[in-house]
Write a structure and sequence with these properties.
globular; single chain; disordered N terminus; about 250 residues
Length: about 250
Amino acid sequence: MPSTTMQPREGAMFHVVPVIDLREGGVVHARRGDRGRYPPLRSSLCAGNDPVAVVGGLLRLHPFPVVYAADLDAIQGAEENRPTLARLKAAFPDVAFWVDAGFRTADAVRGFVASGLGDAVLGSESLHDLAPLAALRADPAWARVILSLDFRDRFVGPPGLPDRPDLWPQRIIAMTLARVGSGEGPDWSRLAEIGRIKPEASLFAAGGVRNGDDLRHLAARGSAGALVATALHDGRIGGAELEALSR
């Protein structure tokens, strides 16, 4: 049984956030953070890996209010998938998109927020220093920023960021990249540690979620939600479980 010191959030709803990983205009299947080897997505929810078809399949499973999109090309310094994101927003105007496009500067975040395509996920692995967070903290765009604290064997990002909760926005993702697509279960100790550092934050687990039991354990231990992909596409987490969690 996982153990953490996180406390349940009274009256708070638990959010399951489906993830799509974009490469060259299509959706790929993320596995353990080895981005050069991600194959095209194969899903029980849709035919093919066109992003609009994939998100449509996810929404037929459950009316998710939020979808997380990782622009792998932009994260790796190549041409970004902005036209694909625009297609998604046009096709699903009522969905809120959280987008990690490898933002490295405060101006890049401001520009993306102004585009109206979604909220900006600042991945710690893309940051060279703390300056973008410090610059955005007093900016109107701050309410549209989500911070992803990224981990492989250890933290990946600017030294000192894990010890500067004053530079963290309200929404935090604990991203254990080595567990993405692995089915190994959430990183319980990491979640507990981050929850202790900033207990008032809305903390989302990412990497390794296997099934409905993991989601229920996360909800019971105070997580605001979880980012999930593989377990949705292969049917280990179904519509009935998602409906029960959303009540």
